[in-house]
Every structure is written in C-alpha cells, then in structure tokens.
Write a structure and sequence with these properties.
Mean pLDDT: 81
Shape: globular
Distance between the termini: 33 Å
Structural class: mainly alpha
Strand order of the largest sheet: 1-2
C-alpha cells in the first residue's frame, strides 16, 4: 500500500509535465502568456494557506529573500517551457535531475551542509546520464534544452536553499504566502 502512495507523487509530477508540454507546444504561441496564466493559477492556492495559519511580516532581510524566491518562482518557467519546445517531455523530466547536483552544492555554500562520498558518485551518474540524453553525435554538441534545464535546475535549487534559510526565521505559511 505504501509503495503505491510513494509512486503517487512522481506520477502526478509526470502528468503535470505532459500537460505543460501540451500547453507549451500546442496551446500557447508565446511563452510569456503561458507563464502569466501559470502564475495566476498558482495564486488560487493562497486562500487555502489560511487554514494552516496566518502569514506574518518578516524582517527586511528575510523579506528580501522571499521576494527573490517569488521572482525565481515566476521566471524559471520561461526556460522550462522553452526547453519543452526543443526536446521530448520525458527528457525534460529527466533533466530535472540536474537539480540533484546543484542543490547539495548550493546547500554547502549557503547553509554549510556536508556531503558523503557516495553522493559524489551519484553526481557522476547523473551528469553522465544527462550528457548521454542530450548529446547530438551528428553535430557534436549538447542540445539547447540541456542548458535551459540546467538553468531551471539551478534556479529551483536556489529556491529550495533560500526557502530553507527563510524557514529558519519564519513559519512555512509566511514562506509560501
């Protein structure tokens, strides 16, 4: 039973990427329009946050970090939707694994988290597999979607680390709001 629950999140995540690809490739001609509507739809969740608590006004340094997080949450979508136009959805989903490389590096630099040797081996496996997925043998170069998704992974990893930093100073309702 718990195994089925564990697969529920990845299945929904994969379905959402398929829907994103459909919107990016077939419905919206301009990426900026798609980003606008995706951001507006995310704002529909805000009233439900009040079931978990009331957001508070954080200190100025934390507020500045929260604004950076909000900015990234909106604008990371541009390279994400552009990458969906350049490569298959399944490969874009696989390229999200680049965040597994970027996140620990940022966590080490910003929050001073330490890594084990086995995690460095995992880095090598992720880098090798993403390289193989995106290398064009005929042109001897990487697909542009690789670089776009590397940027997306970096931005989302930065959001994760900044959110963790913010959660050390304010509650999760304030960070999500």
């Amino acid at each position: 039973m718990y195994v089925l629950i564990a697969f529920f999140t990845p299945v929904l995540y994969a379905l959402s990427c398929i829907v994103d690809a459909h919107f990016s490739n077939d419905v919206f001609k301009k990426t900026s329009s798609l980003v606008f509507y995706a951001t507006i739809s995310n704002m529909l969740i805000i009233p439900f946050l009040f079931f978990f608590g009331t957001p508070e006004v954080p200190s100025f340094p934390v507020l500045a970090i929260l604004f950076v997080i909000a900015f990234i949450e909106v604008f990371y979508q541009i390279p994400y939707y552009l990458s969906l136009r350049h490569i298959d959805t399944s490969i874009v989903v696989a390229l999200f694994s680049l965040g597994k490389i970027v996140l620990p590096i940022l966590a080490y630099l910003i929050v001073d988290e330490k890594l084990a040797i086995s995690q460095y081996v995992g880095f090598g496996i992720i880098v090798a597999s993403t390289f193989i997925l995106n290398f064009d043998m005929k042109k001897c170069k990487l697909n542009i979607a690789f670089f776009l998704m590397l940027l997306v992974s970096f931005l989302l990893s930065l959001v994760t680390v900044l959110s963790k930093y913010s959660l050390q100073h304010v509650d999760f309702v304030t960070v999500l709001f």
